[in-house]
Amino acid sequence: MRVGVPSEIKNHEYRVGLIPAGVKELVLSGHEVFVQRNAGAGIGYYDESYIAAGAAIIETAEEVFSLADMIVKVKEPQAIERKMLRPEQTLFTYLHLAPDLPQTTDLIESGSTCIAYETVTDAMGRLPLLAPMSEVAGRMSIQAGAMCMEKSHGGRGILLGGVPGVAQGQVLILGGGVVGQNAAQMAVGMGARVTIVDRSLDVLRRLDNLFGNKIQTLYSTQDAVEEMAMAADLIIGAVLIPGASAPKLITKEMVKEMQAGTVMVDVAIDQGGCFETSHATTHDNPTYIVDDIVHYCVANMPGGVARTSAAALNNATLPYVLELANKGVNKALLDNAHLMNGLNVFKGAVTNQSVGAAHDIKFVDPRDAVAA
Fold this sequence. Notes:
By secondary structure, the chain is of the alpha/beta class. It has helices spanning 20-28, 47-53, 61-67, 79-82, 101-110, 131-148, 178-189, 201-211, 222-231, 252-257, 306-327, 329-335, 337-340, 353-359, 366-371, and strands at 2-5, 32-36, 56-58, 70-72, 90-93, 113-116, 170-174, 193-198, 215-219, 234-237, 263-266, 287-290, 293-296, 343-346, 349-350. α6 packs across α7 and α11 (306-327) packs across α12.
């Protein structure tokens, strides 16, 4: 199979779909890999490393897309990239289609096969290709939030861990999954007072066992969220419904009642965000203020630590890339139900139920679509 790796073009996105070690594995398995010139240069993966791994260096994204049977990326294809897709081509990347009708429409019209990292599952029901970036984003959310809490960045001027004789900052984490757990680890390590809310008692028990009395766990109700939000200095939005838009747990009315200078970091922004006042921002301009509340809503947060993120993502995606390349896309999908769960769009049809429901588009069972 011919595998293409274009440069990422989203704002301050330096990650790359395949690092040289992954390219070498594909080449050793008999596949051709085309990498756009300087695709990994921003994080120290230079063209010479790709050439040594067996890749061909291609000048433009248009050429990469025209040569490749499968495109391996990191972020969702931008409008200019979506125009390059063609039928019989496979796209393997993060998509986050539920809150993004224009992208969904373009992928349908392309006729291509589109597999989303964020909906691939494993035998435990987890999301193995989302997990590494969730770990990064969860940890970064506390770093970013702590910076935004400084007065010069619009916050209340509170040091997250406090100092002897002065109270620590209060952190509210909405959602106890991978993002929430990693955010809690960082916040606890910095000495903050941490509360995690979640609707799963099993999740709350796991977190209680993990952290003991270093955190407080609460069952998620509107009253609990509202009460804790009013007292928080930093709120982390870490709620995920696989493939679907994130629920809006913090309303506009709640934002108006919060303490001025409270910081909200919406890690769920790729899925539409879990604050009603959220809209996507970039690393160039990461924050904005609504009703004196600082919002940090960078849509590609792990791109800020791109070398760590790219290596972690490649560790997770490479087995699936190899499976798709070695077996062929259709056979790989039919053989692996967990990979099939990643299929969001197939030859003009929406094959993810949550995406179909989000946009009121007819959903086609993915197995039936591929088998046909």
